[in-house]
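Re: beginner question about structure tokens

> Can someone show what the tokenized structure looks like for a real chain? I only ever see the sequence side.

Sure, here's an example I had lying around. Input first:
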Amino acid sequence: MSRPCNYREDFLDDFSTEFAAYFLGLWIADGDITTQKIRITLKDKQLIDLITKRIKFKNKLELVKSGYTKKMSCYRITIGGKPVKIIRALGFTGKKTGNEFVPKCINELNFNVFNSRGYKC
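And the corresponding structure tokens:
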């Protein structure tokens, strides 16, 4: 028996939607991936709240120290399952600051909705 998912797993199913493309752009800018999870870490609690509302995220937010000095308090959401498989299928692998890349297939997506700072949920 599989355990219940604490968020909408289908939010990355269609990249022609504004939110899916926005989420991917935000993740490229402020996220990371492992074999089993993706994370987005932001100082902006309002932005995290908008994301969690749209994907119906029910888990507790993590409060972490981030940045080069590890002194900045940030909020983090961690997601596993289907969204991880979708992002990996696009060609993304583990990522650390300074080693980011955007797979060639991203050129096929609608860059008009990739603005990770101006989207209104």
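Each token stands for a local structural state, so reading them left to right follows the chain. Residues 69 and 86 are 32 Å apart (CA to CA).
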